[in-house]
Amino acid sequence: KRRELILAFESSCDETSVAVIEDGYKILSNIVATQINSHKRFGGVVPEVASRHHIEQITLCLEDALCEAGVDYKDLSAVAVTYGPGLVGALLVGVAAAKVVAFTHGLPLIPVNHMAGHIYAARFVEPIVFPALALLVSGGHTELVYMAETNSYEIIGETRDDAAGEAYDKVGRVLGINYPAGKEIDRLAHLGKDNFNFPRAMVDEDNFDFSFSGLKSSFINTVHHADQIGKKLDHKDLAASFQQSVVDVLAQKTVRALRKYPVKQLILAGGVAANKGLRERIENEIEQFDDTSLLMAPLQLCGDNAAMIGAAGYVAWKAGIKADMSLNAEPSLEF
Ligand code: KG4
Ligand code: ZN
């Protein structure tokens, strides 16, 4: 049987990435060019800067991805690309590149939702078993997604304000931690204690929605108030308290969702899924569900990358999902 090779593009935010995936789950190459250093001094991603970097990087990433995989255009079966959600100027670069390759080489063009891509990062560990529930936590999104079957995504709960990763990045700023702050707060959290007892928003409400802006404000007010009275707060304890609040809310809402939607598999994915505290807590919580297994995206594939887009693109391609040359970036794409 001829191996099925997908060439995948990702450029929705601040990483330019191109990958070659075999049979939907083997990574032949996954080149990621990060722009984090260019955005750090602004404390977040600057859209115009992001677009320019993508333009500079995309063909270099493409050449590297094909070279590392040892494949030629004629070996490819399809081209997958993130077309949303994300920054419009950033997305356009990947979409244009994917269209050029698909058109020139007569290959099918597969449109992929970035968030579906995050879920499929878990496919590199083992196959996804349906029905499944995904806790998707990233810099732009925090949502619980029910998947009855392949290519079916239903948001059953989401954040009403900030995404979890966004809250990490914003509180990181008041602690003087560079963007993106999640990893460093996670490290500090493991060295401190939860003695600030920050709020846990909406945990008792009978829904699957989240809110992190109250926690963020409470954190920032605590730090500013201490500054005003000249008191020094322990950053390790602040980090531990913040993280405990985020993890408590994410875990409790996920448990609530699993009770209402019994599934065979719980998937943890997105940039914040790299969080050690969250991974440990979800591993513990899943024990109470005998019929549900836990599938976590591998640490190195939690952040944005094209391999995950290739894996999601593969199942979409198998289902006959295709785009034509009119495909456009959709910055506010929903499932
Ligand atoms: O999925 P992602 O790479 O980009 C988006 O699609 O948003 O997620 C990036 C987010 C950032 O907010 C970053 O601070 C957060 O993921 N993050 C973490 C950790 N590693 C990255 N948050 C908490 N703990 C971590 N270990
Ligand atoms: Zn992402």
TrEMBL record:
GO terms for biological process: tRNA threonylcarbamoyladenosine modification. The keyword Cytoplasm applies. One of its GO terms (molecular function) is tRNA N(6)-L-threonylcarbamoyladenine synthase activity. Signal peptide: none annotated. Fe cation binds at residues 114, 118, 304. Residues 26-310 form the Gcp-like domain. InterPro entries: ATPase_NBD (IPR043129), Gcp-like_dom (IPR000905), KAE1/TsaD (IPR017861), TsaD (IPR022450). This is tRNA N6-adenosine threonylcarbamoyltransferase. The gene is tsaD.
